[in-house]
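FYI - complex with S-adenosylmethionine, inputs then prediction.
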Amino acid sequence: MDNVWCERLGVELGKPDALGICHIGFSSSEAYDFHQRYTKGAHLRRLETVPFHQSQWESPYYRKTLDRFLENADLAQAMILDFGCGDGRFADYLLQRGAHQIVCVDFDYATLAAFGEHLTETGDRDKVLLLHTDFDHLPFAADTFDVILAIGSLYYLDRQYETGIARLRDMLGQDGVLITSDPSIEGFMLRALVFNGLNESLDIFRSRRFREVTDASAPGFRAFDDGEWRDIFRAAGLTVLDRQGISLFHNLLRVLFLKGIVPEEQLRERQDDIESMFDYLHDHGSLFKHVVWKLGKKRNSDGAAPSQHVVDDAFFIL
Ligand SMILES: C[S@@+](CC[C@H](N)C(=O)[O-])C[C@H]1O[C@@H](n2cnc3c(N)ncnc32)[C@H](O)[C@@H]1O
């Protein structure tokens, strides 16, 4: 690739395609098949403009969380990775906050193309490298990034979550920040109990896996409680710097609306109250769909980073 990105990142990226997207390749996986089947769900930037969509309701709270987590980050100087960027909901936010070196990775070509088009319209195309690849093919060396985002994307690695997050840790600079947003088991157990019945709720509890769609043949992905997530981060050589739950209510209300139980008229009439309730839940709620974690590299007592990480998955209930 004849641009500055190869130099900045110290990797060979090959020739970009007609839309300026670089391809590194990827392997087929359950997660890839799932996303190709339910591809609409990854266009969360575009879906923010759809009235009463979950993305419209939850995105402001994600941004509020990122405002806090990145308060002290020098985004203008930072090299940033957005893993599983979708159509760029949060890369777009980072650009608005002054970032201008963002590597956006996704194995779904359509979302990358949609984001590329948006960047051309906003004049930010040269600030973003669009990389079509999967987690296993990420080419980056240790200490490459100052900020890594993995919002609603890393848990699709399923059994490889632990090794995956340890790899992201390695790609992070010593004082870097890794922000990941992952499913909260209690939220998904409640959602399943209400809409799918007791058996599904108990299955989630037992297996620590949930299905994102009602199709019983769809794969399950990881969901844990806070203590279990913390154990995974600790084993990967990461330390929790901050955390913020994203309320389950956005998702519940969306499902109730789609099922016709809460009518559109009522959502329109009570819009202000709904917003006040969401504001309240962001600050005081305890039932979450996802929890957003701000993570940093763990240091030894002498201040140095540990030389290797131990990935211990023995405690999983399988
Ligand atoms: C729920 S969407 C979230 C998108 C974006 N982070 C956001 O919050 O708007 C998850 C995204 O991760 C991508 N993804 C999941 N697993 C991946 C993998 N192993 N390699 C690359 N991309 C992946 C999907 O294609 C999808 O675009």
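The first strand starts at residue 22 and ends at 25. The longest helix spans residues 54-69.
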